[in-house]
């Protein structure tokens, strides 16, 4: 370990110790008065993340773990995705989204391309991703021991048809979530094949997780935009960005306020990834009426009402409470 890393390790050890365990050292000068030690804000000490990894996440809002999910598991998820696309299985509550511009899918040529499966919590095979021990041990570093799987997706970015609809605008995931605190929410995003700039890898803006939730809406793009693909208003494209190129099985964990998106898929193939947003079961729901999130509440309620024929009876909170699944510990609040 480098000298700098060793100093960081000692610092974190001090920060994570209870106040009673820290004793002052005698000096010849007048004693200074210190307040209670401050813990790191975004991570917990579970003895999994190294000091360098914890401080990287604290500073940047994301961390990439190489080769975390096995090829065998990813191949099983891919086969289940194919079954859904071929309509060999119908999953209650799952939303099958199709690209507005891609006329041909991979598996059913006379249908529009499936661009995303959302809310696959009732599919035992796909939901198995959310319960993988190798994923949960990292999730616990951010949420604590009581873990809810709140939002599930399998993203199938299609080759762009020339209208740039395969882009995903820069956004913050917290825009979609009516629960808090944000610091106890984390996304795991796993590449199901090599992901690079050619096929539209994730793009993140480091350190933006330390800011606040921004106003979101549909971007005014010339080729149109897919449903629910909201973006940050007045986004500054000159902000420093990082392209997360990943191999199959690599997994990135990131904060819900981190601004991120993805570019066009400029290849001829489809780019696949699977993800889950987790939250501490100790989180609580908030009322988003009168806030910047009111527009997403209205859109989600309209979709849910049409899907389940419930008129205005269903609330924004209801849609999330219905989707949430306990994957570790106790369901204490959510």
Can you characterise this structure?
Pathway: Lipid metabolism; fatty acid metabolism. Its cofactor is ATP; L-ascorbate; Fe cation. It holds the Pfam family PhyH. One of its GO terms (molecular function) is phytanoyl-CoA dioxygenase activity. One of its GO terms (biological process) is fatty acid alpha-oxidation. By secondary structure, the chain is of the alpha+beta class. The protein has a single domain, classed as q2cbj1_9rhob like domain (Jelly Rolls, Sandwich). The protein is 23% helix and 21% strand. It contains 7 helices and 16 strands. Strands 1, 2, 3, 4, 7, 12, 14 and 16 form an 8-stranded antiparallel beta sheet that branches. It has a 4-stranded antiparallel beta sheet with strand order 5-13-8-11, with no helix packed on it. It is globular and about 55 Å long. The relative contact order is 0.18. About 6% of the residues have low confidence.
Kindly summarize this structure in a few lines.
With 334 residues, this protein is of the alpha+beta class. The protein has helices spanning 3-16, 51-60, 71-85, 124-127, 133-143, 294-308, 316-323; strands at 62-65, 95-98, 114-118, 147-157, 168-171, 179-180, 185-191, 202-204, 216-217, 231-232, 242-244, 251-254, 260-262, 271-280, 284-285, 325-328.
Distance between the termini: 40 Å
Q: Give the domain tally.
A: 1
Mind telling me which CATH architecture this is?
Answer: Sandwich
Query: Helical element count?
Result: 7
Q: What is the N-to-C succession of helices and strands?
A: HHEHEEHHEEEEEEEEEEEEHHE
Low-confidence stretches: 17-37
Protein name: Phytanoyl-CoA dioxygenase, peroxisomal
InterPro entries: PhyH, Phytyl_CoA_dOase-like
Pfam families: PhyH
GO molecular function: L-ascorbic acid binding; metal ion binding; phytanoyl-CoA dioxygenase activity
């Amino acid at each position: 370990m480098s000298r700098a890393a060793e100093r960081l390790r000692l610092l974190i050890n001090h920060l994570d110790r209870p106040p009673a365990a820290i004793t002052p050292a005698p000096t010849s000068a007048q004693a200074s008065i210190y307040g209670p030690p401050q813990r790191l804000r975004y991570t917990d000490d579970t003895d999994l993340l190294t000091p360098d990894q914890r401080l990287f996440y604290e500073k940047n809002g994301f961390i990439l773990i190489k080769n975390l999910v096995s090829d065998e598991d990813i191949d099983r998820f891919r086969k289940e995705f194919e079954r859904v696309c071929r309509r060999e299985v119908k999953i209650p509550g799952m939303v099958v989204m199709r690209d507005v511009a891609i006329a041909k899918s991979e598996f059913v040529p006379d249908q529009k391309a499936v661009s995303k499966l959302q809310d696959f919590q009732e599919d035992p095979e796909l939901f198995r991703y959310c319960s993988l021990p190798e994923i949960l041990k990292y999730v616990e570093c951010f949420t604590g021991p009581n873990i809810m799987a709140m939002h599930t997706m399998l993203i199938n970015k299609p080759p762009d048809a020339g209208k740039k609809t395969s882009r995903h605008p820069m956004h913050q995931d917290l825009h979609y979530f009516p629960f808090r605190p944000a610091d106890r929410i984390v996304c795991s995003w796993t590449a199901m094949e090599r992901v690079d700039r050619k096929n539209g890898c994730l793009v993140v803006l480091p350190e933006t997780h330390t800011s606040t939730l921004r106003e979101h809406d549909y971007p005014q793009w010339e080729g149109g935009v897919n449903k629910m693909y909201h973006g940050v208003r007045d986004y500054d494209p000159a902000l420093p960005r990082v392209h997360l190129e990943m191999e199959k099985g690599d997994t990135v964990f990131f904060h819900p306020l981190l601004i991120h998106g993805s570019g066009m898929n400029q290849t001829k193939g489809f780019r696949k990834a699977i993800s889950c947003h987790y939250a501490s079961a100790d989180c609580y729901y908030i009322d988003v009426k009168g806030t910047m999130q009111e527009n997403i509440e209205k859109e989600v309620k309209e979709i849910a009402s049409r899907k389940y024929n419930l008129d205005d009876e269903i609330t924004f909170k209801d849609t999330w409470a219905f989707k949430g699944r306990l994957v570790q510990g106790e369901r204490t609040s959510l």
